[in-house]
Amino acid sequence: MESYNIIVLVFGLITLLLLVMLYFINRILQYKTRIDNSFLEIRKLLDEQTSILDRMINFLKDNLEHEVSLLKKLEKTKDLIPNIKNNSEGIKDIKKAEKEILDFTKLENTYKKLVKNKDYLSIKEDILNNKDRLIYAFDGYDKGVISYNNYRGKKLIKFLSKICRIPLYESYNK
Hints:
The chain is an all-alpha fold. It contains six helices and no strands. The protein has helices at about 1-65, 70-80, 90-105, 105-110, 120-150, 155-165.
């Protein structure tokens, strides 16, 4: 009879340990899901940015075809955006793309007549609106990444994350 109680106790402890581990793994996955959902919002804004890039490229071809270097940069950026992933390289690519897109708005410093061009002003407004929305989206993304990384910093959670192969994320505004 005593051996039966010991076996039940051992199985009970193992079950309790497994339930605790599942609880922590579930919490990690909840954080990961929040981060992935935030990145999906960013992905939508990046897709909008691709359509803005199309307009920018067409504008340059129609009006400033001699701006070949900027045109090539924007075409490379347009090809880069669909392949951006939610990792440190992807974050670097997004920052690079934003910088190159904002170079378009600096054209008015060189060509004063652009300030009166409705197409240019419309594209510039869309760029700035998209940039503002991206800032807001990245703020939410960063909050999720920081909470996740703080939670993941605990020894048991770090161990479980490695077992489940859940990555450590990098925030955008480092």
